[in-house]
Amino acid sequence: VQVRFSKLSGDKLSVTLYDIKGQLIAKIRKEKAEYMNDIISIYLPENLQTGIYFLSIESPEFNKVIKINKQ
Prior knowledge:
By secondary structure, the protein is mainly beta. 0% of the residues lie in helices and 54% in strands.
Protein backbone atom coordinates (compact mmCIF):
# COMPACT_ATOMS: atom_id res chain seq x y z
CA VAL A 1 0.00 0.00 0.00
CA GLN A 2 1.38 3.42 -0.90
CA VAL A 3 0.16 6.62 0.77
CA ARG A 4 1.28 10.18 -0.01
CA PHE A 5 1.88 12.58 2.89
CA SER A 6 3.86 15.71 3.38
CA LYS A 7 6.27 16.09 6.29
CA LEU A 8 6.67 12.42 7.08
CA SER A 9 8.38 11.70 10.36
CA GLY A 10 9.35 8.06 10.02
CA ASP A 11 10.99 7.69 13.39
CA LYS A 12 7.74 8.54 15.20
CA LEU A 13 5.33 6.83 12.80
CA SER A 14 2.83 4.27 14.10
CA VAL A 15 0.99 2.01 11.64
CA THR A 16 -1.72 -0.42 12.76
CA LEU A 17 -4.13 -2.61 10.82
CA TYR A 18 -7.68 -3.38 11.99
CA ASP A 19 -10.39 -5.62 10.57
CA ILE A 20 -13.95 -4.51 9.81
CA LYS A 21 -14.94 -5.28 13.43
CA GLY A 22 -12.24 -3.00 14.80
CA GLN A 23 -10.06 -5.83 16.05
CA LEU A 24 -6.31 -5.30 15.89
CA ILE A 25 -4.79 -7.45 13.14
CA ALA A 26 -1.21 -6.22 13.12
CA LYS A 27 1.14 -3.48 14.21
CA ILE A 28 3.32 -2.80 11.20
CA ARG A 29 6.96 -2.53 12.22
CA LYS A 30 8.96 0.44 11.01
CA GLU A 31 11.18 -1.97 9.08
CA LYS A 32 8.09 -2.90 7.01
CA ALA A 33 7.59 0.67 5.76
CA GLU A 34 9.69 2.64 3.31
CA TYR A 35 9.76 6.44 2.99
CA MET A 36 10.64 8.27 -0.19
CA ASN A 37 9.60 11.72 -1.47
CA ASP A 38 6.62 12.05 0.91
CA ILE A 39 5.32 8.60 -0.02
CA ILE A 40 5.15 5.77 2.49
CA SER A 41 5.04 2.21 1.18
CA ILE A 42 3.57 -0.17 3.77
CA TYR A 43 3.94 -3.93 3.44
CA LEU A 44 0.87 -5.74 4.76
CA PRO A 45 1.03 -9.22 6.32
CA GLU A 46 1.38 -11.92 3.66
CA ASN A 47 -1.32 -14.09 5.22
CA LEU A 48 -3.96 -11.33 5.11
CA GLN A 49 -7.29 -12.82 4.01
CA THR A 50 -9.75 -11.25 1.58
CA GLY A 51 -11.88 -8.57 3.26
CA ILE A 52 -12.14 -4.96 4.36
CA TYR A 53 -9.50 -3.52 6.66
CA PHE A 54 -8.60 -0.15 8.13
CA LEU A 55 -5.02 1.06 8.20
CA SER A 56 -4.33 3.65 10.91
CA ILE A 57 -1.29 5.86 10.35
CA GLU A 58 -0.29 8.15 13.21
CA SER A 59 2.53 10.59 13.82
CA PRO A 60 2.91 13.79 15.84
CA GLU A 61 1.93 15.77 12.71
CA PHE A 62 -1.19 13.85 11.62
CA ASN A 63 -3.57 10.92 12.06
CA LYS A 64 -5.08 9.15 9.07
CA VAL A 65 -7.27 6.07 8.64
CA ILE A 66 -7.43 4.42 5.24
CA LYS A 67 -9.97 1.81 4.17
CA ILE A 68 -8.41 -1.15 2.35
CA ASN A 69 -10.37 -3.70 0.33
CA LYS A 70 -8.14 -6.80 0.09
CA GLN A 71 -9.14 -8.98 -2.85
